[in-house]
Design a protein that fits this description.
This protein is α+β, with helices and mostly antiparallel strands. Helix content is 38%, strand content 11%. It folds into 4 domains: 51 residues; 194 residues, Biosynthetic peptidoglycan transglycosylase-like (Penicillin binding protein transpeptidase fold, Orthogonal Bundle); 241 residues, Beta-lactamase (3-Layer(aba) Sandwich); 128 residues, no CATH class. InterPro entries: Beta-lactam/transpept-like, Glyco_trans_51, Glycosyltr_51/Transpeptidase, Lysozyme-like_dom_sf, PBP_transglycosylase, PCN-bd_Tpept.
């Protein structure tokens, strides 16, 4: 029976030889001129199949890392679907090029894309029980390019990486490899291969692999390091040096054997290299805003500006593909000189509070709309600093953040910091700040004769008709303010009844809506939802508005009436360094009259010197002064659970928020609470948001224009020319 077994083995090898010979014949026929190929009658069907295969390969750049950087070029974060940083062949160590050729395709510089000798050798070895591949580096490059192209078209990468190839697939790769060799040089193919090949789920291409496993650039790879990486491509999980160090060591030494055999290294180099233990310096790959070097939530805001902008792709998926695969460089408006103290301040304000109140700071540059800083006292990941974790961005509209219907992102109730809108309408009608209004009036019944040329005014305040749906009589925080007073005093002392008396004295209530629109105010849900100022409760800050929107409003006063749409991106470049986008400054000079803006600013300066802002004190009870001309407005909602200070100098405007950020404002009243170890009978805008604003502004105002404000015309102050 032994002779029968031997005969079977011999026949098997003969069949294998004939099969491979037939394959090589098909390839040979396909490579020859058509007139010669036509004489190969026996292989005619195979030749026709081979001829029908495509011969052109679209070599598109593989997925690359997108970088988000601050205005000064310092890193913020990186985003990618594949961690890859292409480098030229000259920036790769000869150790890696030699190692990959020695182990994967030692005849690389001799064949024309397909190595028929290698195919025959591999098949015979496989029939002997020795597993051996036959794909050349060119074929492997083709296979990787096809995968990348398919993934870019939306196909599942897991399926592509793990799928089985048919004979037709292999023949297709062979034909494409042959054509590729006619189009590109060997060095170009080798460079492309080493930049595209998969080493690890966190490392695509040799530069990323070098950094990931050894924390070095590809040009600095040592012989043992290069041999390990060259061995890794054959089985990234099997030979992973982190999870399978023994397998990795054996594979590395196999590569070194091949390098010695092919003459790439000397015996002495080989001996030293195989004696070298695996010495990893794994650099964890951290992508996305959760791992941002600075400004996590600003980073998230920037990415949403890209994802929501059709300029970067017709569909949401197109934009996501560009962002995660395009190798973009997104230069932002962030100023690290402001960001660092902003983050430190919000952390200090309430970071240690066990009740986890939210704090936020957003700074905008007047006259440009540039968002210079954006900070809040939470982190996106557990274990990153303070143990207050949320993906919500407190500073922006829900459209621009990872928010949902549960609340958190999408703005907060600004309270009395909305009162300057009514003041703007008053001044726009030419009325002076020192004119007296009747702040003693507390009732505005259902039939109150508001003067309006547009939408009907809704809402009413009247104790006697609460059963009909009216709110109770208007309330002020303290009883001594129910009296006639100048409009100016009503603002700097933040008197609710004075604001309503001002609105009642307007020639057209609709001027409040016009002022709000001109100042860029909109609901925190998104930019297309304007605030409805015909609802009386909104005069006192009832709707949710984001800090970035409020900062823009106050920046308009600082810029003498020039409103600028907030921008966070100055330039977007593609992987080739070509500018493909960016947010242009969209400023409207005269959005409100310059004289009106100057008069509003003049009143808001009084807030800090003798009004509600005079209560912005340090722990010793001393009023915090910036030492430069500044203006501000405090704001507190009716539950004392969402509080603000909006303040500005000539050069910067900052919205400061403290309060309930993740739940409905009525779910937790800001009274009789402890914050950072201090008991507060009630929380007011000046008490916590105020010092947060003042301490931060002290650190940054000197970096920008901090001169005096332009004086308003006397007619808007006293009514006299």
């Amino acid at each position: 029976m032994r002779w029968l077994s031997a005969l079977a083995g011999t026949l098997g090898r003969l069949v294998a030889f004939l099969a491979v010979s037939a394959l090589c014949g098909v390839l040979a026929v396909g490579f020859l001129a058509p007139t010669v190929a036509a004489t190969w009658g026996a292989a005619n069907g195979s030749v026709q199949f081979f001829d029908s295969l495509p011969s052109e390969l679209k070599v598109t750049p593989p997925a690359r890392v997108t970088k988000v950087v601050a205005a000064d070029g310092s890193p913020i974060a990186s985003v990618y679907s594949e961690n890859r940083t292409p480098v030229p062949l000259a920036a790769m160590s000869p150790n890696i090029t030699n190692a990959i050729i020695a182990i994967e395709d030692y005849r690389f510089y001799e064949h024309g894309g397909v190595d028929t000798t290698g195919i025959l050798r591999a098949v015979m070895a496989n029939f002997r029980g020795d597993r051996q591949g036959a794909s050349t580096l060119t074929q492997q490059y083709v296979a990787n390019v096809l995968k990348e192209n398919a993934i870019a078209q939306g196909e599942d990468p897991a399926v592509l990486l793990n799928g089985q190839k048919s004979i037709g697939d292999k023949l297709r790769e062979m034909k494409l490899a042959i054509a590729l060799e006619k189009q590109y040089s060997k060095d170009q193919i080798l460079e492309g291969y080493l930049n595209i090949v998969f080493f690890n789920r966190d490392a695509y291409g040799i530069q990323a692999a070098s950094q990931h496993f050894f924390s070095v650039d590809a040009k600095d790879l040592t012989l043992p390091q290069a041999a390990l990486l060259a061995g890794l491509v054959n089985g990234p999980s099997v030979y992973d040096p982190v999870t399978n160090p023994d397998n990795s060591l054996q594979r590395r030494n196999l590569v070194l054997d091949a390098m010695l055999k092919r003459g790439y290294i000397t015996q002495a180099q080989y001996t030293e290299a195989v004696a070298t233990p695996i010495q990893l310096a794994v650099k964890p790959t951290m992508q996305g805003c959760a791992y941002a070097a600075q400004a996590q939530y600003f980073c998230d805001y920037v990415l949403h500006q890209i994802l929501n902008d059709p300029a970067y792709g017709a569909t949401a998926d197109d934009r996501l593909q560009l962002l995660t695969r395009g190798g973009l460089t997104i230069t932002t408006t962030l100023d690290p000189r402001l960001q660092a103290p902003a983050q430190a301040q919000v952390d200090a304000t309430a970071g240690a509070n066990p009740d986890k109140w939210g704090t936020a700071l957003t700074t905008i540059q007047p006259g440009t709309g540039k968002v210079l800083s954006m900070a809040q006292n939470t982190r996106m990941l557990q274990g990153q600093g303070l143990d207050f974790v949320t993906s919500y961005n407190f500073n922006v509209d829900r459209l621009d953040a990872n928010g949902n219907d549960l609340g958190g992102a999408g703005g907060f109730q600004p309270g009395s910091s909305m009162k300057p809108v009514t003041l703007t309408a008053w001044l726009s009608e030419g009325k002076p700040t020192d004119q007296v209004v009747n702040a003693a009036q507390r009732r505005y019944p259902l039939n109150y004769p508001w003067k309006t040329t547009c939408t009907k005014v809704t809402g009413a305040f009247d104790d006697t008709t609460v059963g009909l749906g009216t709110a109770p009589d208007l309330q002020n925080n303290e009883p001594q303010w129910y009296r006639p007073m100048p409009v100016r005093e009503g603002i700097y002392q933040s008197i609710n009844t004075a604001t309503f008396a001002t609105a009642a004295g307007l020639n057209d209530f609709c001027d409040i809506q016009r002022a709000a629109d001109a100042l860029g105010l909109h609901d925190g849900e998104g930019k297309d939802q304007k605030l409805d100022m015909s609802t009386l409760g909104n005069l006192l800050g009832g709707p949710n508005v984001s800090p970035v929107t409020m900062a823009s409003m106050f920046a308009t006063f600082s810029a003498n009436g020039t409103y600028c749409v907030p921008i966070s991106i100055t330039e977007v470049k593609d992987a080739n360094g070509q500018r493909i986008g960016g947010q242009e400054q969209k400023c409207r000079a005269g959005a409100i009259s310059p004289d009106v803006a100057k008069a509003v600013t003049n009143v808001l300066q009084d807030v800090l010197t003798k009004g509600s802002g005079y209560n912005i004190k340090d722990d010793a009870g001393k009023t915090i002064q910036l030492g430069v001309p500044a203006a501000a407005k405090t704001g507190t909602n009716q539950y004392n659970s969402q509080t603000w200070v909006m303040g500005f100098t000539k050069g910067v405007a900052t919205a400061s928020f403290f309060g309930e950020a993740l739940r409905n404002p009525e779910d937790r009243v800001g009274r009789n609470v402890v914050v950072n170890g201090r008991f507060w009978p009630s929380v007011d805008g000046a008490y916590i948001a105020g010092p947060q604003w003042a301490f931060y502004m002290q650190k940054v105002v000197g970096l920008f224009d901090h001169g005096g404000f332009d004086p308003p015309p006397p007619v808007l102050i006293t009514g006299k020319r």
